[in-house]
Amino acid sequence: MKKCPYSAQREKILAEALSPVATELRLLDASDLISILRFEYYGNLSDLVSSAAEMFFHPGTVNFGHGGSYTLEWGGKPEVVIDLEIKPRGVTIYAQLTLADAHAGIEINHIAFENPSSNPHENTAFLEHSLNQARYNVPPLQALAS
Predict the structure, then answer these.
(1) According to the lineage, what is the superkingdom (predicted)?
(2) CA distance 56 to 52
(3) Are 21 and 62 in contact (CB under 8 A)?
């Protein structure tokens, strides 16, 4: 995607929203993810992404995209990139989630608003609101202990 002045802010919003999903996916063994990508078992990867997302987002919000890639070199740490399609109400986002040893990252490839505003700030605010609406409202752990 051609980067614009709002790209970094939108990627940050998306990264914060998808952080728990990335954390769940990072619990999987990197070699398993690489094997799934290498042998193109995309149905299995789709199930893994759906399972990781189902605890945090309404069904159908976070989906496996159309592929992925990996880096695995002698003496280096593995890195897995998974294509995602994120569809909160009113927005479709095509992104790549990068999973590495100690971190994860997200890069937006394309974002489409159903009814875009001429004001990019309003579109960014709508993205954040839409992602928040697509998340389950989980009470804080402290409230559960009381």
Answers:
(1) Bacteria
(2) 8
(3) yes
Q: Residue 121, SS3? A: helix
Q: Is residue 107's pLDDT more than 90?
A: yes
What is the band of 138 on the pLDDT scale with cuts at 50, 70, 90? Answer: low
* Distances from the Cα of 114 to the Cα of 24, 93, 109, 119, 138, angstroms: 30, 11, 17, 14, 28
Q: Name the pTM for this structure.
A: 0.89
Q: What's the pLDDT at 102?
A: 87
β-partners of residue 68 are 82
Residue located via tokens 């069904």:
59
CB crowding 30-67: b at 16 or more within 10 Å, else e:
beebbebbeeeebebbeebbeebbeebbeeebbbbbee
Question: How far is residue 123's CA from residue 131's CA, in Å, rounded to a whole number?
Answer: 12
